[in-house]
Amino acid sequence: MTSSAMPPLGPVSEPQAATDAAPGTGPVGTLLTEPPPVSATGAPMITIEGISKWYGDFQVLTNCTTAIRKGEVVVVCGPSGSGKSTLIKCVNALEPFQKGQITVDGTQIANKKTNLPKLRSRVGMVFQHFELFPHLSITDNLSLAQRKVLGRGKDEAEAKGLALLERVGLKAHAHKYPGQLSGGQQQRVAIARALAMNPIVMLFDEPTSALDPEMVGEVLDVMVELAREGMTMMVVTHEMGFARKVANRVIFMDKGEIVEDAQKEEFFGSPRSERAQTFLSRILQH
Amino acid sequence: MNYNWNWGIFFEQSPEGTGTYADMLLSGLMWTILTALCAWVIAFAIGSVVGVLRTLPSRAAQAVGNAYVELFRNIPLLVQMFLWYFVLPEVLPESWGTWLKQLPNAPFYTAVVCLGFFTASRVAEQVRAGIQALPRGQRMAGTALGLTTAQTYRYVLLPNAYRIILPPLTSEFLNNLKNTSVALTIGLLELTARARAMQEFSFQVFEAFTAATIIYIVINLLVVTVAGLIERRVAVPGR
Known about the structure:
The complex is a heterodimer. By secondary structure, chain A is of the alpha/beta class.
């Protein structure tokens, strides 16, 4: 329950992702110049190496390379259409990519032998539009995958779900249906649903973008708590307050490329690229 | 118009010697209902599978689904009845063809299979539309939780899609029920065939078809009522 669960950030890490080297494959800590900042203490949980993706002729991702260490919270931001949602969906193979490799906890997702459903069951995902299953009660939303994927019994799954509902402050709503909850409540249930699978990493794809402003806070609170407990998180969001509060690193994307991959302080203090500077000045203006 | 109205005709003995004309119509009604129900079981099963095929990522699966739908919905039902009943036994190996022709109740089995396959193409379109009407994120959410494609369909996509398409599916069921009348052309003694027989035996054409019309309407209204009950029963709270 403390922030000590997070590995300290390596002071010598190189924040700017290089676009040519294949990172994350050598022994950790031996190559200080190697791109993504792999500290001596945190093993990489996700490595993204040279990912390119096309829709027909249109290239949506260009040679994206980065890594996320165990316990790290990485915020991905950038203008709409910059490919950040596409990139995060590549991490659990919801979107196919044509070039490069992504490794999650040692498993290559572009490897044909990989059991993708099994891998995905260990990677929690939270969507912009919640995507709770409307025909199932909150309890059943939480237990469906536990039972069908993890093979847990009904009682065990429901108990686990209820415990997580309590954690996100919604225990009293267990019997309701998604349509009877507010957007913020639905998103908290969606987070609980992902956590019920005991994920090793959580992916958030613009979790607060579809919410009314007064509901953003309750969802961010849950996420902040999660981050402080040491959960490895990759978060696509425009919530710079959240980034400042709990992120270790910020990745800035534009036109399908990772333009900036920096420690939080560095990103907010002195962004290197002009595009990041413009983006920041626009969204921090108000 | 010189017409001898005789509403008591229904209680007169029919020349078939199996009871009154009313009995004759009711036996027709029974075959109509039996044919419709059996055909619907086939239509719903095949239609669901074919509808799902058309929404799978696999191009091959889509092609199979498309081929099925376009084959069975683009040939008139009447022609399909004739193909199944008159043509199929001739193109099969001889022993199979003979077996088919000697089946007792051959018109019934043929009507059930023909109508089932025909209606399946229409059900498939509804199922496809229902699945495609769901937000894309639903499939992603199921997938992201580790559900397999089959599980995602079984537990997430289909339960929602069926709810969406319940009203048009009701229409398909009504069509299916009314289409059983086409089977009179291959000798199925269903309601319309019985009304026609009654007219030919008794010359009371208006009474015979008035009765048939009313029976069809009542049965279909009953179906609509039941469908409404089902719709309310499976309605999702908060929607």
